[in-house]
Amino acid sequence: MLLHGALQSAASFTDLGAALADRFTVLIPDRRGRGLSGPFRPDHCMATEIDDLGRLLAETGARNVFALSAGALVAMHTALANPAIARLSLYEPPLEFGGVQPRYWAAGYEAALAKGDLPGALVAVLKGTGDNEIMTRLPAPVLKSFFAMMMRLRPNAAVGNGPPLATLIPQSTTTSS
């Protein structure tokens, strides 16, 4: 089972899945609210994500999980509660280390969502994760303007091979992942 991060969909793992398919049965679900999984529920939270992954494991018989970023947190919490996971591999889980404390983006994210400000919510996540990519080093107002323009001018444009950017932003004010 390959589990993608927060601003991704199953399409993010297409190449990895293809590379593993000669040795494994590969399952790449869309996490709830992303890709083909259907909408977020109003009460979407980590417990929802854990339940979703647990159900997928039970229904498929999968026992090995590779997970990225926020998906890694979901997989880690699921493994603590669900003995179905025999092997777990986590890549870039947003854990606290050094001066980086990824959970502190949640308040700014939720405040932006409460105002209906999807670009602001996205910037709160990008700035709060501690990532050092070039985009995250740009000033917040520049990023916000850029994302707002992209969502307005190309509302149905895919992100890479995945779904449109606005559809990847959980719009519940209950902290998800």
From TrEMBL:
Q: What InterPro entries does this protein's entry cite?
A: AB_hydrolase_1, AB_hydrolase_fold, Carboxylesterase_BioH
Q: Which Gene Ontology molecular-function terms are recorded?
A: hydrolase activity
Q: Which residues form a coiled coil?
A: none
- What domain of life is recorded for the organism? Bacteria
Domain AB hydrolase-1 positions = 2-119
Q: Any idea which UniProt keywords this protein has?
A: Hydrolase
Would you tell me the protein name for this molecule? Answer: Alpha/beta hydrolase
What organism, scientifically named, is this protein from?
A: Bradyrhizobium barranii
